[in-house]
Amino acid sequence: MEETRDTRRGSMDTVIVVEDLTAGFGETTILENVNLSVLRGEILCIVGGSGCGKSTLLKQMIGLIRPKAGRVIVGGDDIAVVDDESLNRIRRGIGVLFQSDALLGSMTLGENVALPLSGFTGISGETVNLIVRMKLGMVNLHGYENHYPAELSGGMRKRGALARAMVLDPQILFFDEPSAGLDPINSAELETLIRGINSGLGTTMVIVSHQVGLVLRIAHRIMMLDRDAKGIVATGSPEELREKETDPQVRNFLFRDEA
Fold first, then answer.
1. Number of domains in the chain
2. Looking at residue 119, what is its pLDDT?
3. What is the reported pLDDT for 4?
4. Cβ–Cβ contacts within 10 Å for residue 45, how many?
5. CA-CA distances (angstroms) from residue 119 to 64, 82, 115, 201?
6. Which of 149, 169, 189 is the last residue of a domain?
7. Between β-strands 231-236 and 221-226, what pairing exists: parallel, antiparallel or unpaired?
8. Structural contact between residues 204 and 42, judged by C-beta atoms closer than 8 angstroms
9. Does 68 share its domain with 195?
């Protein structure tokens, strides 16, 4: 089931609208005629099997890949057609936590977190340091500004990358497999941070994940993609999908940890 075309493009409650999106590489089409919306302040989790287009869809929404056809509207702007200057402006309102923490090993954690500030703003060094300390404090890394990534655990690096994603106070945060490679304790801590940021700051979140437990605990809405359908086969709250969805592949995903 593909999500119905959104009719509220001008609504203050809709921050992202994807219209008739077709995406792929070369002659290969991965997503075809996909329509979806992301509502302000929600946690939308995108799930599905390997090769279904989860990461491709995320990259379309942050402007890393241009669609073959269709539109991706973020804050009223179609990022598929805007010029580079406009795209950079739009990206200032977006934070991304990639599957790997993507911290630069030659820089301290504080320098890594400060990178977006150096690239997009002209604020003073003293103010940059203040913001960096504040963001690291938000992810329970106060006092680690001068540590290098190699001196930190995997969970600490992931939280440091989250601080960097938040440093420009984005309205939207994107996560690509946020708990990948983390043990249960660090995964639970990151999950708590994600929920706290969403509820405390009202940050809109789009999360790509294959981890059923994480998705069922934090998602306001789940959207499932299918490789054969090249699009959305189910969408709804965790409760709605677990109680009402009859598609076997959807139920197999949602209940697989209980088998």
1. 2
2. 62
3. 41
4. 25
5. 17, 20, 6, 24
6. 169
7. antiparallel
8. yes
9. yes
Residues of the chain with pLDDT under 50: 1, 4-11, 258-259
Instruction: State the Cα–Cα distance between residues 71 and 137, nearest whole angstrom.
Output: 38
**Residue 27 in tokens:** 């002659």
Residues 27 and 123 in one domain: no
Q: What whole-number distance in Å separates Cα of residue 161 and Cα of residue 143?
A: 16
For residues 177 and 162, state if they share a domain: no
Q: Cα separation of 232 and 63, whole Å?
A: 20
Residue 9 sits in a domain of what CATH number?
3.40.50.300
Give the ranges where the chain is alpha helix by DSSP (H): 54-61, 84-91, 109-120, 125-138, 154-166, 184-201, 212-218, 238-244, 248-254
Distance of CA 92 to the CA centre of its chain: 15
Q: E strand or H helix at 204, and its extent? A: strand 204-208
pLDDT of residue 208: 95
71 and 15 assigned to the same domain: yes
pTM over 0.90: no
Strand-pairing partners, residue 42, are none
**pLDDT value of position 12:** 55
